[in-house]
């Protein structure tokens, strides 16, 4: 696949002179898609790095902003859908009005700051966003926080077992590169992940930035685990609602929670017309975002050696942090 066929944020055809000067001084490497540059401890493709810089320079926070954060393929789509549904239930819309999730994909409703809104400009038009504004990111917390400073906005981070993240990324990449499942791509992705030199990586630095943030400032940073969302979704949705300042009342406790979980289920979202036929602004098919959503699927694809190596790395990297995975 040549560069022109890649999604915009993975390319390097959009760089300002300032960004070209910056990247010439940054640590760099190459992977199967192109060059990666390390900025503030995180690896980015060049156009994404421009988006990060645009965001840091131009974003003006509002007090009610909500940011959904994650490492790619960690349950982002589901968390976005749940957040949209939680806030939507507070509006007294008539039943004739289609639910936002029926007319747009979660990634359209909660766009990425660095790979979408700020990809081409440090002053995008954000007037279409009503309060509370919903945004998303894959940046580590220290990079995201640059324009937020002391803003009371809420940040929700979802973390997932890195083995399942790796396998999910492999399926996703093969889908948007329009390739058959390629074991060599899984192996090279595994090596990159283990070395830490991977898009938005190192994985453990991304996770730990939000884990530590949630311990230091639990009122503004919520750390969620994909596995807990799967094993006890009702409890986790209530926890999310409480954190966002829209807890369930006693009257709505059972029914509303169940309705939201059903609406946001993989089965429900993947069967909606918009998610069967639509594409992101970066030209990725929405259908690629819905696969299995299972916990532990990695065991069907990774060798025992890969499994053990990842376990050892994760144990070493998380040691002393209090984070158990």
From TrEMBL:
Top EC group: transferase
UniProt domain Sulfotransferase: residue ranges: 64-322
Pfam families according to UniProt: Sulfotransfer_1
Database matches in SUPFAM superfamilies: P-loop containing nucleoside triphosphate hydrolases
Keywords noted in UniProt: Transferase
Cytoplasm found in the keyword field: no
Molecular-function GO terms, alphabetical: sulfotransferase activity
Sequence intervals crossing the membrane: none
Domain of life: Eukaryota
UniProt EC number: 2.8.2.-
PANTHER family, A to Z: SULFOTRANSFERASE SULT (PTHR11783)
Family according to the record: Belongs to the sulfotransferase 1 family.
Protein name: Sulfotransferase
Organism from which the protein derives: Brassica campestris
Native organism taxonomy: Eukaryota, Viridiplantae, Streptophyta, Embryophyta, Tracheophyta
């Amino acid at each position: 696949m040549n560069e022109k066929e890649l999604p915009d944020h993975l390319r390097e055809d959009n760089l300002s002179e300032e960004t070209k000067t910056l990247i010439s001084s940054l640590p760099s490497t190459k992977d199967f898609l192109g060059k990666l540059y390390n900025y503030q401890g995180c690896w980015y493709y060049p156009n994404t790095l421009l988006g990060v810089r645009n965001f840091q320079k131009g974003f003006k926070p509002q007090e009610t902003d909500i940011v959904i954060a994650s490492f790619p393929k960690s349950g982002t789509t589901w968390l976005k859908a749940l957040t949209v549904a939680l806030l939507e239930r507070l509006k007294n819309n008539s039943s004739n009005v289609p639910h936002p999730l029926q007319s747009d994909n979660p990634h359209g409703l909660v766009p990425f700051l660095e790979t979408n809104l700020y990809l081409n400009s440090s002053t995008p038009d954000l007037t279409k966003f009503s309060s509370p504004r919903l945004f998303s990111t894959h940046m580590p917390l220290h990079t995201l926080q640059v324009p937020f400073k002391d803003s009371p906005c809420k940040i929700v981070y979802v973390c997932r077992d890195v083995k399942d993240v790796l396998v999910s990324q492999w399926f996703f990449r093969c889908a948007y590169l329009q390739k058959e499942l390629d074991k060599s791509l899984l192996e090279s992705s595994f090596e990159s992940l283990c070395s830490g030199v991977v898009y938005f990586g190192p994985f453990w630095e991304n996770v730990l930035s939000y884990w530590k943030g949630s311990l230091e400032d639990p009122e503004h940073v919520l750390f969620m685990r994909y596995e807990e969302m799967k094993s006890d979704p009702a409890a986790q949705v209530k926890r999310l609602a409480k954190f966002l300042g829209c807890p369930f009342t006693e009257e709505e406790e059972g029914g509303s929670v169940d309705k939201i979980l059903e609406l946001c289920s993989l089965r429900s979202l993947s069967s909606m017309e918009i998610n069967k036929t639509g594409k992101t602004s970066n030209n990725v098919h929405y259908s690629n975002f819905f696969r299995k959503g299972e916990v532990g699927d990695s065991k069907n694809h990774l060798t025992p050696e890969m499994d053990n190596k990842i376990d050892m790395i994760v144990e070493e990297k998380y040691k002393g942090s209090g984070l158990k995975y």
